[in-house]
Amino acid sequence: MAETGRIRVAKDKADLVKSLTSADGGTGPFQTFADVIVFAAALGVKYKKRIPLGEISKREPAPIRLEVFAVSGYDILIKLIALTETQDIIILSPHEEEYEKQRNGIFEEYANGGLELLVSELRGAIDYTDRIAMYLKYEKTNNGEEDEEFNLTKFLS
Q1: Which residues of 59-68 are buried (b: 16+ CB within 10 A; e: fewer)?
Q2: Exposure check for the chain: N or C terminus, fewer CB within 10 A?
Q3: Are 106 and 82 in contact (CB under 8 A)?
Q4: pLDDT of 92-143, one tens digit each?
């Protein structure tokens, strides 16, 4: 079960998370560990890949305080993922430590699943930023998503 007040990273994914950040002179596409974890969680949710953490990273990245996520507004995403997963609004209760642990655990497992997807997607890549950009472009192109703001064809008869 998740630790209250912190988001943990699986030990086997710690090096990947570090390499995806630009902190401490890194060249990764994300500024913070929290940014990486949120991106990974979104991938995990999109592909329904939820994986238990196993052994937890104690060093870089150590468990990340929830305040770090809240400052960027990511706490809302953590709650939305938990609500979608459980289909029970009680999971949003701010007064019960048990619900916070459950929300964090769900988020951590989806992030771990997303990191697992990134491991295979980034295998052999030299520049993670380029590879992730190509991956996102591929996803957008192959899902037939169009920019709704500029798609005026729906108004044609």
Answers
A1: eebebbebeb
A2: C
A3: yes
A4: 998 889 999 999 999 999 999 999 999 998 888 888 888 888 888 888 888 7
Between CA 143 and CA 77 the distance in angstroms is 22
| Interacting residues of 38 by C-beta distance below 8 A, sequence separation 6+ | 69, 72, 74, 77, 111
CA dihedral 104, 11, 138, 48 (to 10 degrees): -40
DSSP string, 32-94: SHHHHHHHHHHHHHHTT------SBP-SSSPPEEHHHHHHTTTHHHHHHHHHHHH--GGGG-T
pLDDT at 155 over 50: no
Please measure the distance between the N-terminal and C-terminal CA atoms of the chain and give it in whole angstroms.
55
Residue 125 is predicted with a pLDDT of 83
Question: Nearest-CA neighbor of 1 among 97, 65, 141?
Answer: 97
Q: Indicate the residue type of 106.
A: I
Q: Is the pLDDT of residue 34 over 60?
A: yes
Quickly tell me which residue has 């990245």 as its tokens: 61
